[in-house]
Amino acid sequence: MPEPEGESTTREVLRRALSDRRAFEHSLDRLIGDNRVTIAVVFPVVGAVMLLASAEGLLPDPLAFNPWLVLCGVAVMRLPLIGGLAPLVDRRAGIALGLLVAYTYGIEYLGATTGLPYGEFSYEVSLGPMLFGTIPWALPLFFIPLVLNSYLLCVLLFGERARSAAVRLPVVAAMVVAIDLVLDPGAVALGFWEYEAGAYYGVPALNYAGWVLSSVVATALIDLAFGRTELIERIGDCEYVLDDMVSFVLLWGSISAFYGAWVPVVIAACFGAALYRLDRFDFPVGQLVPGR
Predict the structure, then answer these.
(1) What is the pTM of this model?
(2) DSSP of the chain, one letter per residue?
(3) How far apart (Å, rounded) are the C-alpha atoms in residues 213 and 210?
(4) How confident is the model at residue 239 (pLDDT cuts 50, 70, 90)?
(5) In angstroms, how far is CA 89 from the centroid of its own chain?
(6) Cα–Cα nearest to 141, from 218, 235, 76
(7) Before 140, cis peptide (omega within 30)?
(8) How far apart are CA 291 and CA 12, in angstroms?
């Protein structure tokens, strides 16, 4: 019995869409793999120099803290995370990640308007268009990778033990808090945002309690998004999936060092040591030495 014309057309459209998606993912994979040093080293180093020059008044107004330059740089540094996880994103992952985006906006808006759960703070530097004039539209680009990188690092470091929620949840939460112990002091020093009070380089303790809450919720949604076996296999095979963490260590570690915030520098170095142990710094020699 011949297949109805409508069903045949639908199948063909789906087949082509799947083929186009795989071709796109393959192209993205090659682009990132061929430019690992540029993405994970050059961009954060240049970014750190430009941010520090902006904060110190060494750049003219069109360039100083230009939000589109900031967003462009961040987007490029996020490419390894996007390319690494893209093949795993199906309908279930799309829904779970959509919920995570919604949570990101909701918890940040709550924090910016009530002071909970992160403490009283305000954005002092434009990070692009603002939602309700309060929080950046690009917020998920900044927020979600913090948890995803922690989640992936936990899985790689703890292996089979990371399958247990009793291990995964506290480890990811601890890593997220550690990342923010590096990020927030640097952002405050640059003038990105400001807290009303804080004993740790201008950041209040409540902020880190808020990140524990956010990391637990985000980890639960990431658990829902990705199958554990498929995720472990993908991040084990994808050499560049944690290059965004390399960028983080270089960018925020150098900014903290410039301002003499040595506790964040040490924490950033600990992340760097973990990545080195996992062989995530082994960029191809040809990318490090031009002409090789």
Answers:
(1) 0.91
(2) -PPPHHHHHHHHHHHHHHHHHHHHHHHHHHHHHHTHHIIIIIHHHHHHHHHHHHHTT-S-TTTTT-HHHHHHHHHHHHHHHHHHHGGG--HHHHHHHHHHHHHHHHHHHHHHHH-TTT-SEEE-S--SSEETTTEETTHHHHHHHHHHHHHHHHHHHHGGGGGSHHHHHHHHHHHHHHHHHHHHHHHHHHTSEEES--TBTTB-HHHHHHHHHHHHHHHHHHHHHS-HHHHHHHHHH-TTTTHHHHHHHHHHHHHHHHTT-HHHHHHHHHHHHHHHHTTTT---HHHHSTT-
(3) 5
(4) very high
(5) 17
(6) 76
(7) no
(8) 45
135-170 burial, b at 16+ Cβ within 10 Å, e below that, comes to: bbebbbbbbbbbbbbbbbbbbbeeeeebeeeeebbe
Torsion angle (degrees, nearest 10) of CA 222, 224, 225, 231: 80
State the pLDDT at residue 270. 96
For 200-215, the pLDDT digits (tens) are 999 999 999 999 999 9
The two structure tokens encoding residue 179:
């990342």
Q: Distance (Å, rounded) from C-alpha 73 to C-alpha 247?
A: 11
